[in-house]
# Entry
Amino acid sequence: MTARDQESATAGGRRDVGSRLRFAVLGTGYWAWWCHGTVLAGRSDVDFVGFWGRDATKADAAAARVGRGRGFTDLDVLLDAVDAVAIALPPDVQAPLAARVARAGKHVLLDKPLALDPVAADEVVAAVADSGVASLSFMTYLFQAEVAAWLDRLRELAAAHGPWEGVAVSCAGSIDTPGNPYIDSVWRRERGGLWDWGPHALSLVLSLLPPVERVSAARGVRDTVHLGLEHAGGPLSALTLTVTAPQSAQECVVTVWGPGGRHTLSLPTGALREAYDRAVDQFLKAVARGSRSHPLDAAYASRIVAVLDAAERQLARPAEQRTTAPIA
Ligand SMILES: NC(=O)c1ccc[n+]([C@@H]2O[C@H](COP(=O)([O-])OP(=O)(O)OC[C@H]3O[C@@H](n4cnc5c(N)ncnc54)[C@H](OP(=O)(O)O)[C@@H]3O)[C@@H](O)[C@H]2O)c1
# Structure
């Protein structure tokens, strides 16, 4: 048993269901098997049961790819066989399934964004609270070692010099790059960088600044969305988000400023499964704890949905009705 296994097995003093949590993945696409399924199937402290999908062939194929478990198409049958579920489905599919999973008394490891509208997100929050299960939203950057260490250092600087006054995040990817696994992702095409990158960018901003109080938004070429966020107490953040950047113009970068200086980090693109493995560590600890609470729980994820929804409502308004002033 590795040190990590030992820690997970004993975290919080107890597990509610034996020593190995029975775990399954909802979803059969690339991210479902490559990340969620591969990591969960490879852990010695998890009993990996398999994949649920609407297509039996794809569910069986996902299980074959990770070499563990089997495919399910009946969600009730799957839920009878597990203690916890990870979800890797489009957000509008994830939210109602997550609420159903939680109401069945199963712990739920969520992906981002939780939902595409606040009502659906709030239903997940209510289901998790009512049933007392653990929830955690996989905010990738926060689990990447390089980013987590950078954020820790910035928190120390803020403690020493005063709070940060602004954050700018630019997330520009291109799902049209040949070989990109999300080239056919319908929800990304429909909802764009705002909903795909937005949760990632907000996870950084909300690690450094107080909650968001007001949102302005504009849409540019290639579906690039620009958000201006006003935070409680006065700090500002600026987010530029797109999944359809020119292939030569892809980059994700964050800059923070305040009395502790100005700091920029080029955001890493790798070590995604390592980050997910750390998220599973924390999820298992939350399951083992009596309170089941976690800072990145369903309620946290719903606050991110609320910000993105406010931006979406701004973008839907006629230009002359937006709060930005026209240039004379
Ligand atoms: N945290 C991260 O860094 C990260 C990275 C990548 C993805 N993700 C998240 O992972 C989730 C899934 O991403 P993705 O890229 O796999 O999305 P996607 O490619 O758009 O999703 C397609 C998958 O969803 C299934 N699906 C679609 N509608 C369904 C329905 N009504 N019922 C059951 N299954 C349905 C499809 O099944 P069929 O094959 O049967 O059509 C397919 O397996 C998203 O929330 C995304 O944001 C997170």
